[in-house]
Specification:
about 425 residues; binds magnesium ion; cca-adding enzyme, domain 2; elongated; 8-stranded mixed beta sheet; binds adenosine-5'-triphosphate; Beta Polymerase, domain 2
């Protein structure tokens, strides 16, 4: 069953010295320890690992004895964080899955077959088989420079195939988040899903509805905020899984795709990114769709329109909480970006100066540029705001009227769609 592979092609210079030090120290303490999971997979595929995880037969208490200053963490299972300089290594004890046949521990599976608790220690081969994909179940011994392969992961590495360990439907049922993980790894590493793994997604995907909103939010950020969001979204669409996360109306995918492309680009350029920006784009189509109604009730009053938009934003975000637990700071970000969209269309000197001083101006402006790319707003508006922010921008603001004439606004006919309403968002020149 166990394959010891010496000819694996891992470039040792890419292995974290700190991780090797942790493994050395555990071994001097009489324990067994290896690198495992994502880092081994990435090293084998020639990708730079983002972090290094260690698996060991030492219990968390044992690890604490070897490294006195560690942190025990973990909601679902206990893991030890060992800090070495700036790097934090995750050290976890070999575990096994407790299954239905294990009468002694019946509380470990829900009625639907989902894993509830997973904190039973096991041997290294049991630890390999409880992992999700064969390529995630490889162990690297940096001292002997060999890879330990219990699940035929090396063959799948060679064929760039992502395959669930064991019976795919059962493994997805145990933990439906593995469906999203499958798409995420396929997108990130350009792997092909094994046909059996691929075919088990459709029958099991309904189970994703039972995943706690906090865990889905974590997975959302991993899917879309690590540089391969556009491709991950493409795979979600192919598997008709987008609505597990968002209520996208038909054809509502244009803005989300543009936002993902922009986020991927920024990550490549090492620029800061925030989930708030993506959330603003993902939920915007739903917001716009419902804005018609909200604005009709405002009856042309700018104040009432603003209040209706605030209320609508609150309601769209609140409805989303039951699927994705969006932390409060991010939902405030979304509300700010949305609130500023109609203001970007009001080019009076007072309004423009006010907007430029807003902490969220830059995000709102970036969002406007996306909407322009999506064909929702006039290019001229984007160019104008780009120019206002340059050295000569003051000249542009000086030429603006102090306030738009109010009387004309009242006589405006009610537009047919909210998106065409300049009160709500820029949809071209105001109707005469
Ligand atoms: P990434 O590069 O995104 O961190 P990773 O493979 O390291 O990828 P993690 O979520 O950090 O992913 O998990 C570490 C390892 O733990 C995985 O490689 C896998 O072996 C195991 N694992 C994580 N989540 C699950 C799960 N839901 N079911 C089974 N095994 C899992
Ligand atoms: Mg990892």
């Amino acid at each position: 069953m166990l394959n010891r592979i010496a000819d694996h092609g891992i470039d040792r210079s890419r292995v974290s010295k700190n991780a090797v030090a942790v493994i050395d120290k555990l071994r001097s303490g009489g324990f067994d320890a290896y690198l495992v999971g994502g880092c081994v997979r990435d090293l084998l595929l020639g990708v730079v690992p983002k972090d290094f995880d260690v698996a060991t037969d030492a219990t968390p208490e044992d690890v604490r004895r070897v490294f006195p200053r560690v942190r025990l963490v973990g909601r679902r299972f206990r893991i030890v964080h060992v800090r070495m300089g700036r790097e934090v290594l995750e050290v976890s004890t070999f575990r096994r899955t407790v299954d239905d046949e294990d009468d002694a521990q019946p509380q470990h599976l829900s009625e639907e077959g989902m894993i509830l608790r997973d904190n039973v220690y096991g041997s290294i081969d049991e630890d390999a088989f409880r992992r999700d994909f064969t390529v995630n179940a490889l162990y690297y011994d940096p001292v002997e420079d060999v890879v330990l392969d219990y699940c035929n992961g090396m063959a799948d590495i060679d064929e760039r195939t992502l395959r669930l360990i064991g019976d795919p439907e059962r493994r997805f049922r145990e933990d439906p988040v593995r469906i999203l993980r499958a798409l995420r790894f396929a997108a990130k590493l350009d792997l092909r899903l094994h046909p059996d793994t691929h075919d088990a997604i459709a029958p099991m995907c309904e189970m994703l509805n039972a995943i706690p909103a906090a865990r889905l939010f974590d997975e959302f950020t991993k899917m879309f905020m690590t540089g391969h969001g556009e491709q991950a979204f493409e795979l979600l669409c192919q598997h008709e899984l987008v609505d597990i996360l968002f209520p996208l109306p038909p054809d509502g995918d244009v803005l989300p795709r543009l936002a993902l492309a922009s986020t991927d680009r920024r990550i490549k350029e090492d620029k800061p990114v925030t989930p708030g920006f993506l959330l603003a784009a993902f939920l915007w189509p739903e917001y716009v769709e419902r804005a018609d109604l909200a604005l009709a009730e405002a009856n042309g009053s700018r104040q009432r329109a603003a209040a209706a938009q605030e209320e609508l934003a609150r309601s769209v975000l609140a409805a989303q909480q039951s699927t994705l637990a969006i932390p409060r700071r991010h939902s405030w970000f979304v509300r700010d970006v949305w609130r500023l969209q109609p203001m970007l269309d009001r080019r009076t000197s007072r309004n423009v100066n006010k907007l430029l001083a807003q902490p969220r101006f830059r995000a709102a402006y970036d969002f406007l540029l996306l909407r322009i790319e999506a064909g929702e707003a006039e290019e001229e508006l984007g160019q104008w705001w780009t120019e206002v922010q340059t050295q000569d921008g003051q000249e542009l603001t000086d030429r603006l009227p102090r306030e738009q004439p109010r009387r004309r606004r009242r006589r405006r006919r009610k537009p047919s769609r909210a998106i065409d309403n300049p009160e709500f968002a820029n949809g071209g020149p105001p109707p005469q």
